[in-house]
Design brief:
444 residues; alpha+beta; DNA Polymerase III, Chain A, domain 2; 3 domains; five-stranded mixed sheet; 11 helices; globular; Znf_SWIM; metal-binding; zinc-finger; zinc ion binding
Length: 444
């Protein structure tokens, strides 16, 4: 059974505040204690403030399961020409990210790093008052800092980051890597569309279909449609609507009869992008989707991840083809290695740019496997010699039962166990299928 929370220790010099000179976001992490890896102004302060509030709102919202909001501080990454602010909702069913592009800030990312950002109630109140031409200066970390010694100490804050956040980061980057742009509508049409959505209490699964300059809703999937499960979960977008130029929607390919799938909804202001990625259904958190499991099943994936991880630069995007050339690995093994790195929070995926990006989180790469019961169970079955292959089929002995596992032409699996009967492949493979994949050295 995996732990609910993983306590990580961060150091803050003082609470985040909005001063006369601008916004000071107190941070932790990076190459030295409390580094300042960015200092400058947001060029669209009101929009940036609205975006930060949206990311913080998602982090403190309980769309399904209640959790302690004290453990949900957004994450910020600085990497050359990008600043990224990320969070998950308390139930891990909504992933929010604000990407600030070069046009969005007047300053320089002088260092590279990822850290937890303290967005406290006073700061949220201050951000809510930013408007018009009010300047908004961001200093990510204090300029001068002395590491704690026996002679003195900075404020130390223990932040319990939920273990499901780690698994959520891993799952989201695997799922969104298969998304494609499905629709783009002007901001005015986006306002009208969001106003037509059901209330926050409505948890039905709807589908948005491109219709000229807008989107129409239907209760059934059709080719080209985008899943919208729990429409009220898009509420965090509303604060940025008056600054946006367009709304873009991304998702996987669907057809008539397709089950509910995740989707990404992104507002673009030109200076920044605010996106919300929704899980397939309101009660489903990304941490349990299982999309990354097959990629983590291969014996060589950990070694590949170490090789690929050593080559990651702090560029805004990660070039898979360049990594394949540099490592001599085929593209599929590079992507599997990125999935493994994703379990340590080191890799994310940007649907707008169709590329991975690099971040660093205070987790070890092997933790996701240790915390995932299906992956642990599958390795145990392999070690026990419980898998017996017969061409494209296999029998797995688990406890007192034998389960038949069959590999389908598309690389997925079916199994006679209760897990597969309940989820039918929509929450990733069962431990029996994973064990067969390990034996066959199947990775995706």
């Amino acid at each position: 059974m995996c732990p609910v929370n993983a306590v990580q220790t961060y150091r803050y010099l003082q609470p985040s505040t909005l001063r006369a000179a601008g916004l000071d976001l107190q941070t932790s992490g990076g190459p030295a204690a409390n580094p300042r890896f960015f200092s400058g102004f947001f060029t669209t302060p009101a929009a940036a403030a609205a975006g930060l509030l949206a990311v913080a709102e998602v982090a403190r919202t309980r769309y399904h399961q209640p959790v302690s909001s004290a453990s949900l501080d957004p994450v910020v990454t600085g990497s050359r020409e990008r600043l990224r602010f990320e969070s998950f909702s308390g139930c891990c069913g909504v992933y929010a990210r604000m990407d600030v592009v070069p046009a969005g800030f007047d300053g320089e990312v002088v260092g590279h790093g990822t850290t937890n950002v303290d967005v406290n109630p006073p700061l949220r109140e201050a951000l809510a008052r930013v408007g018009g031409i009010d300047p908004l200066h961001v200093a990510v970390g204090p300029n001068d800092l002395t590491v704690s010694t026996m002679d003195g100490a900075v404020v130390e804050r223990k932040v319990p980051l939920p273990g499901r956040w780690l698994r959520g980061f891993a799952e989201v980057q695997v799922l969104t890597a298969g998304f494609e742009p499905r629709a783009e509508i002007p901001a005015a049409e986006a306002v009208a569309f969001l106003r037509r959505l059901p209330s926050a209490r409505d948890r039905s699964v709807l589908w948005a279909v491109p219709a000229g300059r807008t989107l129409r809703l239907t209760s059934r999937p059709v080719p080209g449609a985008v899943c919208l499960a729990g429409a009220g979960r898009l509420a965090a977008l509303r604060g940025l609507l008056r600054h946006a130029r367009s709304l873009r929607v991304y998702g996987p390919a669907v057809r008539a009869g397709s089950p509910a799938v995740p989707s990404t909804w992104e507002l673009d202001t030109g200076a920044l992008r605010l996106s919300l990625t929704l899980s397939p259904e309101p009660y489903r958190g990304f941490s349990g989707e299982g999309a990354a499991l097959l990629a983590l099943a291969g014996d060589e994936v950990i070694d590949d991840a170490e090789l690929v991880g050593g080559l990651l630069a702090w560029d805004p995007t990660v070039d898979v083809a360049a990594l394949a050339d540099a490592t001599g690995l085929p593209d599929d093994r590079v992507r599997a290695a990125l999935a493994q790195l994703g379990t340590a929070g080191r890799v994310g995926f940007d649907v707008a740019e169709g590329a991975y990006f690099h971040r660093a989180m205070p987790y070890d790469a092997g933790r996701a496997e240790r915390d995932n019961p299906r992956l642990v169970g599958a390795r145990t079955l392999v070690e026990q010699g419980a898998v017996h292959r017969d061409e494209e089929h296999a029998t797995v002995r688990s406890g007192d039962e034998d389960y038949r596992v069959r590999r389908l032409p598309d690389g997925s699996f079916t199994c006679t166990c209760q897990w597969w009967a309940k989820h039918r492949g929509q929450r990733g493979p069962c431990k029996h299928a994973l064990a067969v994949a390990m034996m066959a050295e199947v990775t995706v």
